[in-house]
Protein 1
Amino acid sequence: MLTASPGNTQLKTVIPAEQIQKRVREMARQISDDYRDRTLNVLGILENGFMFMADLVRSMEINTTCQFIKPKYRRRMDGNVESVEIFFSHDAEVKGKDILLVEGLVHSGVTAEFLMNDLRARAAASVRLATLLDRQSARRVPLQPDYFGFLVDEAFLIGYGLGSPDQTGRNLPGIHAPVRRA
């Protein structure tokens, strides 16, 4: 199925909205079963994870708290080596709490792994990762999400919270990929 996107780019539907909603409900049921009789502290990573997180927590049948963080990156040069530092918008209180980190798309895994290690170091009772989309082919660290919706290989996706480079398209209900023109 082809549709027009912001900027009149042709898009093909990779995952239709109905399929996303069905899988989100299944994931919420599994998470609810895993955390029955406990409060789950859901920590969403902005921007890509906001829509997925909203639908996920609405479908859970357990007590939750919700917070958001936004990673910020800074490149540094240490001698001849370039490194990337990752900072987050605020520190959530996590000591002794069950934390579910929610991502819209796990790509390299570097950011999620860094954040999970940081949360564990700050004495969270447990830290798990949920992602709607898992691009394992791009993984740079040995990270496996605890809960995932769909495996994807497309290099660029928009919709359901994922935005284009100009930040448009996040409101599309399905997941779409640009159609390459010959």
Note: The chain has a mean pLDDT of 89.
Protein 2
Amino acid sequence: MRMTTLCYIERDNKYLMLHRVKKENDINKEKWIGVGGHFEEEESPEECLLREVREECGLTLTGYKFRGIVTFIADNYETEYMCLYTADKYTGSITECDEGILEWVDKDKLETLELWEGDKIFLRLIAKDVPFFSLKLRYEGDALKEAVLNGEPV
């Protein structure tokens, strides 16, 4: 089991997106995702979020919101529990990321990117300002086979 954070940082109706093109053997290879990563020993979700955002893009978050928890189940990958955040306040300047290319993308253009199908579901929930949610996503390879929102099939 793995624990991770993922954050969509907002500015001018855009999200800071990471195009994962730099790492070999990356489950997210060629996909566009927010910024975040794996928990370190004894970290809280907020500590992981702040550290990972700082490491991946150089920004220090000063205003963020915990939006939900996403459970990823895959036939070829261990189960992952992801704490999902959005942020709209930060300090610092964007730095180069060793995992991919960072780019501000208009929110209304997100679905034109190469996204995981499950990411489209939680990005729509965020766009609708749905209160804190639990989303379970089951994949076979790259194909989304099941999505369950707050215990109900989607």
Note: Residues 51 and 60 are 8 Å apart (CA to CA).
Protein 3
Amino acid sequence: MIKTKISKILVPLDGSKNSFIGLDKAIYIARQCGATITGIHVVSIYPQHFGDLVTPLKAKLLQDAVKFMEKSKGVCAQNGMVFHHKILYGEAKSEIVDFAKQNKFDLIVMGSRGLGNVKEALLGSISNAIVHKSHVPVLVVK
């Protein structure tokens, strides 16, 4: 049996109830392993044909992301955990997978469904893509 030390956990967050369930599970695992937690959120970049709406929309999405990252920081602090966070722009699936690999995370912990409109039978589309594309182990929490 191969034993791997878990010292860095990445938690994709979108402000949904399920993403906070993922955070709760990550806190539990981190406390058991002495690991650190980093929350990540990816703000989608919208196509140029939306014109003048893009800038205010991106600003609102960033403002929302900052709010739930602060909430996540508070949840971690209440549990004696330090919370780091990163907000990126782009496509969530690829940005999360790339960030986890580049920063050598040991585990990705995430909720099964987020705020996306398209829901699949068992997993959300983002969760499903990350499970299949990530080189880092992924724990999907229901």
Note: The two ends are 27 Å apart (CA to CA).
